[in-house]
Amino acid sequence: MDYPQWIWHNGQVKPWAEATTHVMSHALHYGSSVFEGVRCYDTPHGPAIFRLEDHTKRLFASARIHEIEIPYTPEQISEAHREIVRRNGFREAYLRPIAFRGLGGFGLSADTPVDVSVATWKMGAYLGEGVLEQGIDACVSSWQRFAPNTIPAGAKAGGNYLSGQLVAREARRLGFGEGIALASTGLLSEGAGENLFLVIDGALHTTPISAALLNGITRNTLMTLAREMGIDIVERDIPREYLYLCDELFMCGTAAEVTPIRSVDGRTIGAGKAGPVTLKLQKAYFDLVHGASADTRGWLDFI
Ligand code: PMP
Questions:
Q1: Does residue 253 line the site of ligand 1, with CB under 6 A?
Q2: Is-annotated flag, keyword Acetylation (predicted)?
Q3: Which of 124, 165, 224, 275 is deepest in the core (most CB within 10 A)?
Q4: pLDDT (tens digit, 9 = 90+) per residue, 105-142?
């Protein structure tokens, strides 16, 4: 992997290789980190970070849930994003802010110093080359998401991603593009690192945040765009079999963007390719992030 030149680390821009931490850092042992995945897109008016303020807000919300005191203001963290994209000379990039309990205690409840970093690197389509056009074959994972009041799904915390890794690795091992997890209720939850949408009779169905999923910013963006297009949105508990019955299916996330799903568990969805509603929303999403449509909500944060 080619690493970028600069990284923001504890308040300073440093060479990538110098942003190191001790092996006895709390987060490495116990998953005590909170992070975000953010994208910067090139637009006709210059590079813009999409919904930066909302990502920073969610980072602080995750930190609040886990009592991780971030020693910077949200404004400082947002500015670190802009600065690190500028310093690396990127026009399009993925960004990864992370705040974690560092070195300073080994007990579970230790109040260690909190380290903060904002990295950025070049990233294409998360689920692979060509998937945004062709779609992926997905499977329902044998691993369920965590039950309510166990590990909070509403926080984007490092430890949560042991679940995501089990789901994603099992799917890849079995030859699928991505895994879909059920909640502890047995009803649909979300993908390993993506929210899920089904299209049924022209309406957009998605699982509720009570189904142990991350309240995705892309999910919210697509629901906003769909509403404006006059597409009905139904947020409800969805049994697994509706995956096999729906007309169209797609996953979404900052990394995965809008990825069509052409089959689940070997059953072809619709025509086995991206359907019309998926394509319409995918286009609206890319037009928005690339500044090809009007940014009426101030979601483009120019660097
Ligand atoms: N669910 C999980 C588990 C995720 O990791 C992500 C990616 N952050 C998402 C959903 C999608 O969230 P967003 O659209 O905010 O990137």
A1: yes
A2: no
A3: 275
A4: 999 999 999 999 999 999 988 888 899 999 999 999 99
In this prediction the ipTM stands at 0.99
C-alpha–C-alpha distance, residues 299 and 39, integer Å = 12
Domains of the chain with CATH codes: 6-122 (3.30.470.10), 131-290 (3.20.10.10)
Nearest CA to ligand 1 atom 9: 194
Which residues face 100 on adjacent strands? 33, 115
Please work out whether the CB of residue 275 comes within 6 Å of at least one atom of ligand 1: no
CA of 104 to the centre of ligand 1 (A): 30
Phi-psi region of 230 (alpha: psi -120 to 50; beta: other; left: phi over 0): left
Task: Give pTM, 2 decimals.
Answer: 0.97
Place of tokens 């949200």: 74
Amino acid at 132: L
Per-residue DSSP letter, 10: T
Q: What is the pLDDT of residues 136-157, one digit of tens each?
A: 999 999 999 999 999 999 999 9
- In the residue annotation, 156 being an active-site residue is answered as yes
